[in-house]
Amino acid sequence: MLYLGTDHQGFRTKERLKHWLESKQIPYKDMGSFSFHKADDYPDFASFVARAVQQSPQRHRGILLCGSGVGVSIVANKFRNIRAALCATPAIAKASRSDDNSNVLALPASFLSWPALQRIVSVWLTAPFSGFSRHKRRIAKIHRIERL
């Protein structure tokens, strides 16, 4: 399952993303915000998505938005087995999947055009993990760090 979450800064973009995902027949679950509230806080929605992905981090994925993408990526990466990647280009999105097997995509809603965001999401959703031993080794090291 693909989980979506955002604060007020990414709300309109998330609503647009939902329609785009539906047009591509990509199932998703919206974890909020469910309406525009200028006083909402990104840690809440990033936590909802991270917890959902955490239930099956190899199968589930998440997309988070906030103004810069930084806040939601920081929050998501606090959760064990979550590898959130802040991506501002399709090339970074592809590398985050092929090299790091990212399972959460963090997007800077205030800094991306709609066409750029679509390309990033499309690449991230379709790019596979390479499975190269060096990347597996690095991810294993991340897992060890998470246990500290």
Automatic annotation (TrEMBL):
<protein>
    <recommendedName>
        <fullName>Ribose-5-phosphate isomerase</fullName>
    </recommendedName>
</protein>
<dbReference type="Pfam" id="PF02502">
    <property type="entry name" value="LacAB_rpiB"/>
</dbReference>
<dbReference type="GO" id="GO:0009052">
    <property type="term" value="P:pentose-phosphate shunt, non-oxidative branch"/>
</dbReference>
<dbReference type="InterPro" id="IPR036569">
    <property type="entry name" value="RpiB_LacA_LacB_sf"/>
</dbReference>
<dbReference type="GO" id="GO:0019316">
    <property type="term" value="P:D-allose catabolic process"/>
</dbReference>
<dbReference type="GO" id="GO:0004751">
    <property type="term" value="F:ribose-5-phosphate isomerase activity"/>
</dbReference>
<dbReference type="InterPro" id="IPR003500">
    <property type="entry name" value="RpiB_LacA_LacB"/>
</dbReference>
<comment type="similarity">
    <text>Belongs to the LacAB/RpiB family.</text>
</comment>
